[in-house]
Structure formats: C-alpha cells, structure tokens
Input
Amino acid sequence: MGDINSLKMINDAFGHLAGDGIIYATGKVIKKCCRPTDLAARWGGDEFVLLLPNADGDTAKKIVERMNQAAALASVDQGVLSIAFGWDTKYAVTENIMTVFKNAESRMYKQKLKMKPEVSEMTIATIMNTLFEKSGGEKNHAENVCFYCRCIAEAMHLSEQEIEIMKTASYLHDIGKVAIDKKVLEKADCLSDEEWELIKRHPEIGYHITNTSADQSEIALAILGHHEWWDGNGYPKGLSGTDIPLLSRIIAIACAYDTILTKRPDKKPDNSREAVSAIMAGAGSQFDPEIVSLFVNQVNNLAVEKTAQHHNKII
Output
C-alpha cells in the first residue's frame, strides 16, 4: 500500500490541478519501479495498492526503496512528492488476503505518521518559497512581523513554548496568499471588490494549509484570526474581543505596523511615528487596547531600532 504525503496541503496551497500533478507523478514512479508481473492501481484519492506476485518481504522492501529513490528525484511543478509505504506477504493459500491487506495498510499508516513532521515541514517551506518568489516583499514582511511578535510575546512574559508557537505562526501568517494570483498581490492600484474578496480568503487558506495535526492547531487558529478586529468588524469570522485568539491579536498589531512602514518605498526610521500613531488610533476598534499599550510603551523602541538598522543596510 502507498499513500501520498501532504496531498491536502498541496491542494490547499496550489489548487487541485497541482495535486493532480502529484498523483500523476506518483503513478509514473510506481509504474516505473514495478516488475512486469506486478499490478498497481490507484485505490483512493491519495492511495495506491500494489500486488506483487511471488515476492517475499525482502523483495517488496527493495521495490519500495526503488520507488522512494525515484520519488525523491521526480520533477513536480508544485509541492513535494513523498509517499508512505507499508507491505505484508501472503505465504499460503489458506491465509486470508484481507488480513494481509489490512496488515500492509496498518504499516503504511504507521510509516505515514512517522514521516509526517518532516514532510509537512518540507511542504510548508516549499509553499513559503513559492510565495516569496511570487511577491518580492513577502519575505521581509514575514521576518519583520515575526520579530515584532517575538518582542511583544517576550514583553508579555509568555512561556518559551508559547513564544516558539508565536514565532512560527507570525512567520507563516500570510502563507494563504500563495493561492492568490500574483497580479492581485502586486497590484499598485485600488483593488476591485472581487479582488478584495480574493485577498480576504488568505487567512482561511492559511488555516487549511497549516491545520494538519492537533499539535499545529494553535498555529492554524492564530493564522485564521489575524485579520479579526477587536470590535468584531474584521474577517473571516467576525470575532471580537478575547474571542479572538491571543496570538492572532498580537500578529494583527505587528502586521499592521510593518505594513504601514513599508507602504512608502523611501521610508525612514522616523516613519515609525506615523505607524505608532495609526496603531494607537486603532486601539479598541481594530486592536486589543492592552497589547497596543504594551507595544507602544515597551516594544516600539526595539521596532524603531530594527527599522533603522534595515534602512542603514539599504543605504
């Protein structure tokens, strides 16, 4: 049995045509590595089943190794090609084929679980690199927002674990923009109503991409809520006040601060005053007023220093 890893993430990030490309590439890999007497078929959405006549466990293992090597070298347009395999052998006519099938399936799922963290990390890295290539300013924005969020989290005395989650969620907060057309992301003029609706989908897309397991749910929820407003006028769910996850409220301030600073290509460190004024003006409506107060009083100096260092590097 074979199961494609992270196919849902690829579908969410790049669309189902990209996912179809991964399925097609998987079929080619399996067909190439099987013997003439073997039978391979697609069993479900992301699953394949192989029947290997007159093959013991060692032979099956060698065939799987060939397929894994071929998958690692396979060229795909978008995403990462990775397959989890499991196998079992029927040695006697009296053995129940369904028991053999279930054993192979069980081992496949165990292998999939073992591979999941590494494959998810690789897939997310691929998605983020695609976003950075699509929109030039997104990498700096992700790094800046991550820095500001870490400063806020430390000033709030969050635990080390919470700070690590904060760093990941803030860096990935715009990952859903990978599914939005480059022309819309880079458009200098005002967006049409239709284009604005596309932009507003990115928190939901980001949530679906990152919500791959229970231990990633806090990151996914932080991404989903980073455009919610304190007064309930945000999106996508219209949450308000403390119903908005804390990490989302932190990201919202950091994201807005960096966005205001980067609107003008000739920005200087002094422009941080304008950004701070805008953040303060949004306290109680767009932003959590307590976090705004902490940001202005404790974090802003670090933010100004970072902006100044960045500006000096440009000069």
Notes: The beta strands are 2-4, 39-42, 47-51, 83-85. The chain is about 60% helix and 5% strand. Confidence is low (pLDDT under 50) at residues 264-270, 311-315. The first strand starts at residue 2 and ends at 4.
